[in-house]
Design goal:
By secondary structure, this protein is mainly alpha-helical. Helices cover 65% and strands 3% of the residues. The protein contains 17 helices and four strands. A hairpin with a 6-residue loop joins strand 3 and strand 4.
Amino acid sequence: MWLLWIITIVNVFMPQEAFLSGRFNVAGLPINIFDLFLPIGILMAIRGTRGAPGERTHPLLIWTLVFFLAATFGGFFASQTTGATTYELLNTARNFIVLGLCIFLGYRLLSRPRAAHLFLFVQIAGGVVVGLLILSHFGQRVQDKLSVHGGINALRVIAYISIYSGTAGVFLVIAILAGLRVMPTPICLALSLVMIVGQSATLSRSEWVSDALTLIVSLVLVPKARVVKGVIQLGVTLLIFAVVMSAGVALVSRVGELDMGKYISEKVGSLDPTDESSGHAWDSRLPGSTREFQLGLESPLFGRGFGFQSSIERVEGRAAYGFYHNVWTATFCQCGVLGLISICLTVFGCFFIGRKLLRARTDKASAVWGAFTAVTGIYFFFIGLTTFSFNTERGAIPLGLVFGMALRARAKQLALLQQLQEHQVEATYNNQSGYLDYEQPQSDYLVPDDYDAEENAPPSDYGAYPAY
């Protein structure tokens, strides 16, 4: 797991400029620091970690990797006629392959559910760091009054992987509403505020929309017993967010000598399909997405090959269509149905496997990691529809690692439930804690390695989930 921590920490702290400038060329392909980490990870993953008694490889892992492998071969095969340069071909292929590799690493390197629980705090810390870094750079640009000469876009900060802030920020809000005891509620709220406000400073409508829709859809993770209390908490949380955001907008307007409120109103207004007074947010996205879909239909099984869109942009002009801003159509165009199935299994698998981990309620570590995985899947579905995200190497890393670890945690959870059933151990759901209670048999190997009676003690009111 230590390698996964290092990869995440580097991905969090490294600005895009340093990432690009630190590359070196090998056979025409710029090699970056993650290209050095991943082979090490593969060697470690082949060795793997010890499985739990009765644990079997999760079938969804097998199917996902099979489709990734098939899509990769198909993408290379189809690329023989694209006219893409070596760099265009290998760079886009790497961006696709790294997602499958990270799924494999996450699965094979997870030793026990508690390791995923600890990794969650790495993700949260990463989201906080990214949020603070974005706010720091944004504040400096406001102080320097860059918008006076360069326009409002001169304030945008797109140097860091804001995905970490989006997923972790929304998750902490859902954890509060669902009664998951990750950290004390005031700390969860404060950290979530830092991450969401920090990510908003990118001035990207894609991220604003993704955060909002992820929060709305993730409400399905809140148990029925907490719906009323959750609605009240959500209202209070949104009110706090609105007050802080309003104060921030006023401060930026005053210090930067600009009307930030008017700019945000125009940005939000562009999301209204009935408002014809100005352009819409999707005007810069639809041409590229539509063209990618049409090109993909010409070769629906294997797609047009890696680097195909890049070759078109090189010939017709980089701003000709705005390719790659919709991960779903971009993947379909270059890898066909095989590639589309691969990313569907990953993103939707995050939600369904995460939800299963949460609802089974065998232990706190699995439940909390399941909730985070489900939120991650929802977030990547929306961010993938709106902009570059997990079709880049750095954006694919968090999605792949989270999904891989969730699959392994689920495999261990299923092994535990199977062992309990085979040994006829009586297990019931505690109505106070919401977790599984069972008598300790003579052999203690049935209990998860990370089971801590004190840590799994009943939190304040939480309705129990049924077995899933």
